Amino acid sequence: MIMKYFKKIIGERVYLSPINIDDAEVYTKWMNDYEVSGNLGNYGQMITLGSEKSILEKLAAEGQNFAVVLLEDDHLIGNIGLMYIDHINRKAEVGLFIGEPENRSRGYGAEALRLALKYGFETLNLHNIMLHVHSDNQRAIACYNKVGFQEFGRRREALFKNGKYFDLIHMEILDTDYQI
Q1: Is 179 a member of any domain?
Q2: Please, which pLDDT band fits residue 3 given cuts at 50, 70 and 90?
Q3: Fewer Cβ within 10 Å of end Cβ, the chain: N or C?
Q4: pLDDT tens for residues 12-35?
Q5: Is residue 84 one of the residues assigned to a domain?
Q6: What is the mean pLDDT of residues 144-154?
């Protein structure tokens, strides 16, 4: 039996696995979905299978990038990563998405985020983890607030989507604020 995912960080309903580059076709579908790409900021790009495979190879080779996988059936549902890790200042950024609409608003993103934070704070010894979110992404903002992130800044009208401007919200959480 060939294993596709590996249970690196295990939660109650999801686990984080090293990225499998064989999933390039699924990621390409997600990256060309407006709801996913619009919230990630790459909605103006056409993502080909070849370019997504190259991106996945790079993500798999560097940093702390994970596939978000359902524990019950080993089904890939999204991606999360800790980026721009600075071990001297003990800080990083986190990015996350859930690919299919039927898997959104079910708590999977919050659980994956908690797992990544626990790993970042307890294993990587980070102190401050931040993220950026678009002001029109209310579902993500609610998720981040629920997990304990706090807004610390806002770049007004920094994003232009579908003929409208949106703010870019900056949020962070400290290891001292984080509760499992």
Answers
A1: no
A2: confident
A3: N
A4: 999 999 999 999 899 888 887 777
A5: yes
A6: 97
Tally of structural domains, the chain: 1
- What span, in angstroms and rounded, lies between the C-alpha atoms of 178 and 103? 25
Report the alpha-carbon distance of residue 150 to residue 178 in Å, rounded. Answer: 11
CATH number for 48: 3.40.630.30
Listed residue (125, 14, 126) closest to 66, CA to CA:
14
* Segments forming the whole domain that contains residue 164: 9-174
Is 60 part of any domain? yes
Q: Is residue 20 part of a domain?
A: yes
Q: Between the CA of residue 143 and those of 25, 33, 57, 116, what are the distances in Å?
A: 27, 21, 29, 14
